[in-house]
Amino acid sequence: MAKTMQDNNLPPLIAVKSAKFSESESLKKEKELLDKFQSCPSILRCFGDEITTEKGEKLYNILLEYASGGCLVDHIIIKGLPEITVSRCTKSILTALIHIHKAGYVHCDVKPHNVLLVGQDAKLADLGSCCKTSFDGNSSCDDFRGTVMYAAPESIAQQKYLPESDVWALGCSVLHMLTGKSPWAFDSKAQPKAVLFKIGCSGMLPQADTAQEIISKNGFSNGSRCAKSILTALLHIHKAGYVHCDVKPHNVLLVGQDAKLADLGSCCCKTSFVDGNSRCDDFRGTVMYAAPESIAQQKYLPESDVWALGCSVLHMLTGKSPWAFDSKAQPKDVLFKIGCSDQIPQIPTNNKISKEAKDFLAKCLVKDPTARWKVDMLLGHPFVNKADRPTVAGKYHHHHRLSHGIHSLSVYNETPIVMILSNTLVCKTHYEIIGVEEDANQEEIRKIYRTALLNSHPDKLQKSSEPHVRNNHFLEVQKAWEVLSNPESRALYDNELRKSRLDVMNADDVSLNDNDC
């Protein structure tokens, strides 16, 4: 990083990338490419180059846009980034790649480490590994380019670099952003040749988190939406005459925020039997989620999947296995308790889960399969219908400072909103989950409204030095103020509040003074 003089048409702060002049061919190439893509807002800007001497050594320097937000990978924590942040970064990277590919180049090293944050804008950087595509659209290099964990199979196996290779690397990067984990999992003792073979030749793909892995980290706060997705999948499976036989969180994969049922290898056909039942010579499924009739009689019904769904939802909501057994329990005792006793998994009686969730579980976890609700009935249950409504904020990402009595005001179905907290006003757009905490009384809500009105007035904010007031954020606050200041529109948007689905955009907080209320 370097400071510049104000009269040289450079920003006050720039970044300087240097190399020994004798070893600067790659850096010179990068400078040429950056000049070529100056018109792309999603590629880091280059302001020129210079040659300097330091300690008697000649250096070649390129002057780059300063990324005040640092490197994207530094923001990826164990749990990953919010999906809206990932989608915004992905759009920026794709915009950059369109320019690069149209110019006949392949980036060759797309990864979070090469995405820099200039303010809130993600910009693709480090074009030094770029290679030119040949007339047939392919590009082969004598040396390997890029980073193994993000490299496409054809790049590793054949040293072939295609525009589609950048797409693979982008997919690995998005997976890393969402999960907080490397796209590939290898033991620290893994041999390099084994790593290269797995990525380049095995046909395997990077693995996304399953619902089970997320539950093992911190529970799963959106069980209703996940349950609805599983029920929708089961409805199709059952209508086709099959039983899944192994519904459990381990077999539910999360594609973004969408839960998808997977692993149909245990499915059995029920239509081959006159009575609609399916019996197998071997046990199918997982004991802890298996229905009593599947364990006791090796009978697999559509209702058996419903039992397994109930066990899965219970696991999602509580973070605990549906059955509690001592580690020394004998297998026969486990099988007897689940398959032959009158016991069912314990549904919590406290207030940790909602009444709708308890009732949903009670409809699923019935010993007699004929008394269990069927999939189409469960799709109409209030617990599942909650998935169509935004829920009260439960667990938020680490960097959202939310306090008691959260309330959000939307500008109807448009993106800008002001998120009002009992002691904080934050300019946001598109927050995913909004609502009023159940224990927030009307007096608290009125106070929050009043605080918002007093502190979001454009005239007052215009005098503020807070970053979120400047540029486009000021327009968002101004637009939100127009809504807040109109009682009729405010009431209308209140009614629509729980119907809106908004995403998040990072912004700085403005502390409120309780004396203003």
From TrEMBL:
Q: In this protein, which residues make up the domain named Protein kinase?
A: 1-384
Please list the GO biological process terms of this entry: signal transduction
Give this protein's Gene Ontology molecular function annotations: ATP binding; protein kinase activity
Keyword field contains Methyltransferase: no
Q: In what residue span(s) does the J domain sit?
A: 429-497
Keyword Kinase present in the record's keywords: the answer is: yes
Q: Name the SUPFAM superfamilies for this protein.
A: Chaperone J-domain, Protein kinase-like (PK-like)
Report keywords, A-Z: Kinase, Transferase
One Pfam family, short name please? Pkinase
- Name-wise, this protein is Mitogen-activated protein kinase kinase kinase 20
Q: Which organism is it from?
A: Striga hermonthica (Purple witchweed)
The record lists the lineage as:
Eukaryota, Viridiplantae, Streptophyta, Embryophyta, Tracheophyta
